Amino acid sequence: MINIVVELSKYVILTLMIIYTILCYYLVVGKHASDRKGLLQTQISLTFFLDFTAFLVVFLKTFDFKVAVFYAEMMVYFAAILILYRRIYKNASMLLLNNMCMLLSVGFIMLCRLDIASANKQLLIVACGSAVALVIPVMIRKMKFLKDLTWIYAGVGVVLLAAVLVLAQTSYGAKLSLMGIQPSEVIKLTFVFFMASLLAREVTFKKVVLATVVAGLHVGILVLSRDLGSAVIFFVAYMVMIYVSTRKPVYLGIGLAGGAVGSVIAYHLFGHVRERVSAWKDPMAVYQNEGYQIVQSLFAIGTGGWFGMGLCQGSPEKIPVVKNDFIFSAICEELGGIFAICLILVCMSFFLTIVEIALQIKNPFYKLIAIGLGTEYAFQVFLTIGGATKFIPMTGVTLPLVSYGGSSIMCMILMIAIIQGLYIYREDEDEEIERHRREAAKRARQRAAEAAAERDY
């Protein structure tokens, strides 16, 4: 009986995910749909039904009461964050919030299936991060001086990265964390704020040079620390923000050429890079060593097929660091390739929503922040999924909101709160423009009335 429930659950979960994904794009494109509120509530219902089905299966396969307790705690968290956002920030983007909850749900399901202790720790970090994040939209709206802290952002980033380079222990071939915290995750935020602050006003050649020097320091220290995934994310965010602020393709071309040269130099300087490239080119040739991770990842993806093995039916634990770098492979194995494609599409709709917010903001500082954060998010998704599927060499970054990781998940929650603040700021801009329009129309009517009165006189 349990096996029948597990088999049927695959198709129930997949159907719920497909409907949710379709609604994501309908809501992104259909801005003025009269039933928008109802569709957003439908998304929440789909997420809750998906969670119930998945956790029921995990419980039936394990009969671990901790799974039921975790499910109850997770539902309390989702209910609290959805209610609080609707009460405190009536103008917040509910689509962003819904997507955050869906991606967190997928991560919690897989973590609970893999390691209940990690799932509990992840939920605690998410809850703490969300509590802090609730005040960030207010800060974005009220703290106008944020655009003036240009060199503080730069200094904090360089100092923290240098501290990691000097003091951190090597883990998986790279220096990543200090005292259990990965500063590069926090610096993703400060770096974007630095670039936005520097380039928000008139962009001169001198400013481009200064931005390049500071970005070079960030990327250079990360390369020396062998944190190549973060280095690539910083570099791409730098290029996009420079191009958007200057609108000069020549800078984009120079950046791409410089990145290509830097990649070749890194390949020849660091054995760690050569190992990953070797594993990417022919993982079976080095299966016993550096190719083991990617081979196991590909086996898992292939085993899952389109519809997956079913929760608790596969062997994702055979993939090293599956909770962090290769959680996408575990999702493919147990929930299927179609579910994984829907997950990618949800991530894309998340990014498109951020881009839409950026395009509608008038203030250049806030516009650049939205573009920079959106670029970092999208490229991190690309690096994680590309590495797990052997599309590109593995870079060792996590899948945002889905993978296990304290610093990563905390900073992603804060990033979403910043974007929510920008969305609310955009709404305030629209209201201000509408207010000025009404006042101008009122003054025009008054002048017309006065002119008519003078003619009658």
From TrEMBL:
UniProt superkingdom: Bacteria
Primary localization: membrane
Membrane-crossing segments per the record: 12-28, 40-60, 67-86, 92-111, 123-140, 152-174, 186-203, 209-238, 250-270, 338-359, 368-389, 401-425
Membrane topology: Multi-pass membrane protein
One GO cellular component, as annotated: cell division site
Entry annotated with the keyword Cell inner membrane: no
ATP-binding listed as a keyword: no
Subcellular location: Membrane
Any one Gene Ontology molecular-function term assigned to this protein's record: lipid-linked peptidoglycan transporter activity
InterPro entries attached to this UniProt entry: FtsW/RodA
Coiled-coil residue spans: none
GO BP term, example: cell division
Any one Pfam family match given in the protein's UniProt record, by short name: FTSW_RODA_SPOVE
Keywords from the UniProt entry: Cell shape, Membrane, Transmembrane, Transmembrane helix
Name by which UniProt lists this protein: FtsW/RodA/SpoVE family cell cycle protein
Source organism per UniProt: Blautia segnis
